[in-house]
């Protein structure tokens, strides 16, 4: 497989074709996820072969946003299935890539180590110091594609998602990201308390 050519192909499409009002899910998000995949893959001791399959999935995972906002993962899979044979990827590798991409949808629980690393990388910022800045970009994007949220509702949504819907899967992310995520939840709860009781 020619990972470098496949990467160049999809990166060019992401930069040129993703809608400019994807303030969160723009190409910059893909590059951020790829960076997290790199560090998690090293820490989790992935083989070279698995690493490049996972990295390919990371570059493709949000490509479906080129065509639609909701349920974009199956579109990303179609794009991968159409293009990756041209870069020498085997049917088996493409099947694995499909499963990794689909694991990033909210309704699917990751099963394999590669899927778990991908999900942790996709939400790496939940346990980082730049959480607030990235959350602001998501709120701005949702105002375009879904709805505008009041400060109170937005804080409540973040708390509920972080507490009830999200979890880290790899030992590395649990060790390195979970403490900062828990701190973030407390900060958000404090902000909500101040807002409600003002």
From TrEMBL:
<protein>
    <recommendedName>
        <fullName>HD/PDEase domain-containing protein</fullName>
    </recommendedName>
</protein>
<dbReference type="InterPro" id="IPR003607">
    <property type="entry name" value="HD/PDEase_dom"/>
</dbReference>
<feature type="domain" description="HD/PDEase">
    <location>
        <begin position="22"/>
        <end position="135"/>
    </location>
</feature>
<dbReference type="Pfam" id="PF01966">
    <property type="entry name" value="HD"/>
</dbReference>
<dbReference type="InterPro" id="IPR006674">
    <property type="entry name" value="HD_domain"/>
</dbReference>
């Amino acid at each position: 497989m020619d990972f470098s050519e496949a990467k160049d192909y999809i990166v060019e499409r992401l930069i040129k074709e993703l809608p400019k009002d994807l303030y969160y899910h723009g190409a910059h998000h893909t590059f951020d996820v790829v960076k997290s995949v790199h560090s998690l893959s090293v820490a989790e001791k992935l083989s070279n072969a698995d690493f490049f399959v996972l990295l390919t999935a990371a570059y493709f995972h949000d490509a479906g946003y080129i065509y639609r906002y909701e349920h974009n993962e199956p579109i990303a899979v179609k794009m991968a299935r159409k293009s990756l044979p041209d870069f020498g990827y085997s049917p088996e590798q493409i099947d694995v890539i499909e499963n990794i991409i689909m694991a990033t949808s909210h309704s699917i629980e990751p099963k394999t180590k590669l899927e778990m690393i991908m999900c942790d990388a996709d939400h790496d910022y939940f346990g980082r110091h730049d959480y607030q800045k990235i959350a602001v970009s998501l709120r701005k994007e949702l105002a375009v594609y879904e709805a505008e949220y009041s400060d109170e509702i937005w804080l409540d949504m973040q708390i509920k998602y972080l507490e009830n819907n999200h979890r880290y899967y790899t030992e590395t992310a649990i060790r390195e990201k979970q403490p900062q995520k828990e701190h973030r939840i407390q900060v958000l709860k404090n902000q909500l308390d101040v807002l409600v009781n003002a």
